[in-house]
């Protein structure tokens, strides 16, 4: 395991790798507003122990990567897509299997459209089509929307920020399984305390698209595995089903009673699925 800040195109990005660089590489892309800590170390080590070279990184405005003035990010979603390619170049990886969760899954789709030679396969977790297709998709659940509307955070108070993130994680979990508040609170606290500026992550809520590929998802030509919880409150299951339908050859793995994100209870299912999907053929 080696954490380091790399600079590419004038952008400082904090990265961390696990495993043997000679093994097949996997790039992990977290959702917006979340640092690489949300790819938990135990999860990364399970993938590395399975014979993969695993790379995780902090988005801009999260963790130890470059931060911008809150409300004035000076970059776009297209730049976040480019950051994934920058991380691979910094690690001298010409192409990788790409695993993205939530908005990170959307970034992974766009990376496959923009950098076709740099993506070997896709694993898309708890996400939605990044390019609109035919038919409407269901909105977030009413409970999720009520949670968003009720959020009141004092960004100058670390405890207030932590309480808000824990409450948000509880709603995202879907409510069908026990919620491990102690574990989530520990992770959130480490995330907030580690960040250069924990308030800067708000910039992700106001990003413009930038110059993104207009190509349809049907033009993605790499093997794609879609993993989706059956009670995801942000992107109901139909979002995952639509992804698997729109990407040629896409396969869907539904996680019963799972919400949004990667719960520890599902590692024993998700990790073998990723290892099988990324195995050399």
Can you tell me about this structure?
Helix content is 33%, strand content 17%. By secondary structure, it is an alpha/beta fold. An eight-stranded mixed sheet has the order 1-2-4-3-5-6-7-8, with helices on both faces. α2 (77-90) packs across α3, α4 (142-149) packs antiparallel against α5 (158-172) and α5 (158-172) crosses α6 (181-194). The mean pLDDT is 94.
Main sheet: strands, sense, barrel: 8 strands, mixed
Span between termini: 27 Å
Contiguous helical run count: 8
What structural category arises from helix and sheet content?
alpha/beta
The average pLDDT is 94
The succession of helices and strands, N to C, reads EEEHEHEHEHHHEHEH
Physical arrangement of strands within the biggest beta sheet: 1-2-4-3-5-6-7-8
**Proportion of β residues?**
15-25%
Note poorly predicted spans: none
Question: What is the CA-atom radius of gyration, in angstroms?
Answer: 17 Å
Got a strand count? 8
Shape: globular
Helix percentage range: 25-40%
Chain oligomer state = single chain
């Amino acid at each position: 395991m080696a954490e380091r800040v790399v600079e590419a195109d004038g952008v400082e990005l904090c990265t961390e790798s696990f495993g043997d660089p000679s093994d097949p590489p996997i790039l992990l892309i977290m959702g917006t507003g979340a640092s690489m800590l949300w790819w938990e170390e135990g999860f990364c080590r399970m993938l590395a122990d399975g014979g993969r070279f695993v790379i995780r990184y902090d988005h801009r405005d999260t963790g130890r990567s470059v931060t911008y003035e809150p409300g004035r990010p000076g970059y776009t979603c297209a730049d976040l897509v480019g950051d994934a390619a920058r991380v691979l170049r910094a690690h001298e990886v010409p192409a990788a299997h790409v695993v993205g969760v939530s908005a990170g899954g959307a970034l992974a789709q766009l990376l496959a459209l923009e950098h076709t030679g740099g993506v070997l396969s896709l694993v898309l977790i708890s996400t939605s089509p990044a390019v609109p297709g035919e038919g409407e998709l269901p909105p977030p659940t009413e409970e999720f929307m009520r949670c968003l509307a009720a959020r009141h955070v004092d960004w100058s108070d670390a405890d207030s920020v932590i309480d808000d993130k824990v409450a948000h994680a509880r709603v995202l979990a879907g409510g069908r399984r026990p919620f491990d508040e102690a574990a989530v609170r520990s992770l959130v606290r480490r995330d907030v305390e580690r960040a250069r500026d924990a308030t800067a992550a708000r910039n992700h809520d106001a990003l413009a698209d930038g110059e993104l590929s207009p190509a349809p998802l049907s033009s993605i030509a790499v093997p794609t595995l879609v993993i989706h919880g059956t009670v995801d409150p942000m992107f109901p299951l139909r979002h995952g089903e639509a992804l698997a339908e729109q990407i040629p050859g896409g396969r869907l793995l539904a996680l019963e009673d799972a919400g949004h994100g990667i719960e520890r209870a599902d590692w024993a299912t998700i990790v073998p699925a990723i290892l099988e999907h990324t195995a050399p053929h």
